[in-house]
Amino acid sequence: MLKINAIDLRAYCILTMPDRKRTRDMDHIYYTSKFYGPTDSPDKDLWVNIEQMDMGRVHGILSNTHRQTLRVNLSFDFPFYGHSLREIHVATGGFIYTGDVIHKMLTATQYIAPLMANFDLSISQNSTVIYCDNGTALVVQWDRVYLHDASHLGSFTFQAALYKDGRITFAYKEVPIDINKINSVNHPVKVGLSDAFVVLHKIEQRRTIYEYHRVELLKSKIANVTAVEMLPLPTCLQLSSCETCVAAQIGFSCSWCSRLQRYTLEQSNRLSAVCFNFRARDSAANNVSSADVPVVLTSIVRTGLTVGA
Question: How does it sit in the membrane (predicted)?
Fold first, then answer.
């Protein structure tokens, strides 16, 4: 069983991947990624001229502010780790939060981060966050933003683009320093993706956020005029029947829960426990103690499962 690090909040418990797990998934399992530099072919220029796109606008809420987020409703279904999203939160700190539950530790998990850092848009009147949704893609640009505790280093300009087919691109126009040298004492510095699911405990009135995967991209490759493209790989979420689930060869250990009429992913112990709990109730032959499987399992937000007593 995977050991996890816990961050306790008042009504939340956030469980993240351990350090030893973070660097193992260079193939990312859920995504494949490729870096592009200034010497690559011009057709691999992933920078989007957002100011020439229709519907692009500068948001005052994310200009002249620090540590703020803005909710954005998407005009299309965006598949993130196989889950369909129609709403995200853009943060001044260089990332997009993808979770359903807003809490005080948004940087911990459930993010798309071209460059998560302690950016402060109140330092310069020229610092803005711009976004554009043209129906097939959402492009978010952090434009001329400065680090809160190191504004003398210069401004950063970079983008994240989310495409209808699930593709994600990061593009960097201005990166004045080595990303590895950015101070992370007061704010995490991350480049990559992370996803989790949220368990709502009805009786205890608390929520537990389980991070099940993250992609950490190499910070040393991030510089001026560079880009990263991440392509989604097939997941268990695309399996809609027992037959397709059993026959699938997609690199995941998927199993089918007949009671829920959906897949369960073995690497997610909580999801497997939901189906196992149903089987335990339905068959007296299952020797399962209440300590092994709780009678009330609650709701799992990301997956849309609701399980009661």
Answer: Single-pass type I membrane protein
